[in-house]
Structure prediction request, 249 residues.
Amino acid sequence: MSDPLQPLVDLPGVREAADRARDALGVVHRHKTNRRGWPTTAAEAAVRAARASASLDGGSTELPAAGEAGDPILSGALRVGQALDGDALTLLQSTWQRAPLQALARLHLLAAADLVDDQELLGRPRAGSGVAERLDGLAQLVTGGTDAAAPVLAAVVHGELLTLRPFGVGDGIVARAASRLVAVSTGLDPHNLGVPEVSWLRRQQAYRNGAAAFASGEPQGVGSWVVLCCGALEAGAREATSIADAAAG
Prediction:
């Protein structure tokens, strides 16, 4: 059976961009601070990622003071960030590898808890429009349906969830978190040190244009999105290096 992502991997520039992303993240994992101190740097990366991800969806980047409710979008992004850190990440990663749709439901519950009036909608994909079928296809890719390089798979998962908007609210935060789960579970970024969200925030128009190009389904557009995401992973590794350098004093 042919690999559904192989035509994408063969597009101009995709392999090279994926290789650069993988190499950059490998370097940051070998940083002297991250050899033993990675739990501290990963926690900082999670907060930075949450703030940037919230901002991309129109939320605040200002962390609330103790006892304050804070911006609901940021609060959801921070809850997602906590689920992608430490022991919670181990549990979520295990769910992602065997039942990715359950993991997506969990991410949505965390991201959108303060954004919907009907709590029964949390974690439940929208009906119709082929949502269930496309989610099933995505789950098959994640659970062994492709041999494509991890950066490519992360970009496809990210782009597909942005395009599909399976829950109708909080989908951007869920999509970016899912791309992180791909990076962790494939060993691309096993300690979740990278912060690609900062790059996407700095290049918001390119990010939105890239997502629209992916949604078009045109090979050139899909390829440009993958290259963009690989570049963000590479930039996220530089952000992780700055975190490690600061932690080293």
